[in-house]
């Protein structure tokens, strides 16, 4: 596993850490791979009762590392990765870092601080519980790059908020601060020290009947909304129709060049 994602273990509790603080924990390919691998490894971990998901440094995650756009100049190659789902999986390689946390039987608690944008927003939504600092700033940022959110959001956001509210955030990329994020259901609650609270909550959960906790998570998850495989396939297909097209590239160049986009 790459050192951009670290996993530590303290008895029955694991911590998964986005470890690119100098880049505000922006997500590059190593983070995609590292988070997916961490989740898969924790599925097989003996004695695990709870997981804390956090970012190193003041920010949880600023979103996609913009180097990914220049590192993948061939849109057709990237579209192939988006539409490719490994055998036995329902999620592609970009969705897996967000969806794997709901594949774990144990509760996953995200400790959110600073910016939680785009990919970071969707990773956070994959957790069962989100504890946020008062300085939290959240955004479905993909529209600023001319893209749709396609990292499992179809399996998470509909469980949390109304469709019209979700559409406003997705259409605009508007930044939401702590109080509004809690009111919208994007975070479970706001607290002064989310990491300390997350660790305490994980300890409390670890002290409960693990057979019951696992079934509690399954009870809630299995009783909600759209078929998982269909939802993940839908977002992948829609992204493949957008990525690499002229207007999407114009969104990238305009943002990098700090100018207004000129869409056709």
Name the descriptors.
single chain, 264 residues, alpha/beta, 2-enoyl-CoA Hydratase, Chain A, domain 1, 6-stranded mixed β-sheet, 3-stranded mixed β-sheet, 11 helices
Total helical elements = 11
List low-pLDDT spans: none
First-residue to last-residue Cα separation: 42 Å
| Spatial order of the strands forming the largest sheet | 1-2-3-4-6-9
Instruction: Summarize the amount of helix as a percent range.
Output: 40-55%
Summed over residues and divided by their number, the pLDDT gives a mean of 92
Structure notes:
- The protein has a single domain (5-193, 206-256), classed as Alpha-Beta Complex (2-enoyl-CoA Hydratase, Chain A, domain 1), CATH 3.90.226.
- 43% of the residues lie in helices and 14% in strands.
- The N and C termini lie far apart (42 Å).
- It is globular, with a radius of gyration of 18 Å.
- It has a six-stranded mixed β-sheet with strand order 1-2-3-4-6-9, sandwiched between helices. A three-stranded mixed β-sheet has the order 5-7-8.
- The mean pLDDT is 92.
- A hairpin with a 2-residue loop joins strand 1 and strand 2.
- With 264 residues, the chain is an alpha/beta fold.
- Helix 1 (29-43) packs parallel to helix 4 and helix 3 runs antiparallel to helix 10 (228-242).
- The protein is built from eleven helices and nine strands.
């Amino acid at each position: 596993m790459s050192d951009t994602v670290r996993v530590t273990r303290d008895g029955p509790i694991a911590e998964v850490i986005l470890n690119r603080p100098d880049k505000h924990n922006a997500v590059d390919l190593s983070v995609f791979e590292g988070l997916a691998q961490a989740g898969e490894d924790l599925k097989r971990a003996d004695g695990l009762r709870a997981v804390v998901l956090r970012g190193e440094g003041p920010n949880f995650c600023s979103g996609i590392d913009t180097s990914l756009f220049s590192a993948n100049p061939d849109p057709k190659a990237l579209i192939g990765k988006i539409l490719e789902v490994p055998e036995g999986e329902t999620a592609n390689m970009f969705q897996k870092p967000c969806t794997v946390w709901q594949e774990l039987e144990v509760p996953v608690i995200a400790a959110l601080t600073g910016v939680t944008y785009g990919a970071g927003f969707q990773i956070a939504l994959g957790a069962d519980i989100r504890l946020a600092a008062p300085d939290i700033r959240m955004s479905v940022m993909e529209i600023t790059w001319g893209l749709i959110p396609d990292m499992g959001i179809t399996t998470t956001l509909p469980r949390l908020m109304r469709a019209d509210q979700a559409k406003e955030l997705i259409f605009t990329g508007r930044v939401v601060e702590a109080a509004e994020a809690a009111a919208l259901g994007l975070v479970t609650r706001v607290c002064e020290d989310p990491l300390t609270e997350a660790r305490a909550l994980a300890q409390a959960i670890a002290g409960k009947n693990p057979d019951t906790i696992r079934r509690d998570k399954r009870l809630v998850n299995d009783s909600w909304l759209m078929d998982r495989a269909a939802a993940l396939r839908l977002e992948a297909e829609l992204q493949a129709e957008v990525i690499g097209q002229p207007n999407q590239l114009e969104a990238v160049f305009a943002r990098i060049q700090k100018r207004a986009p000129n869409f056709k």
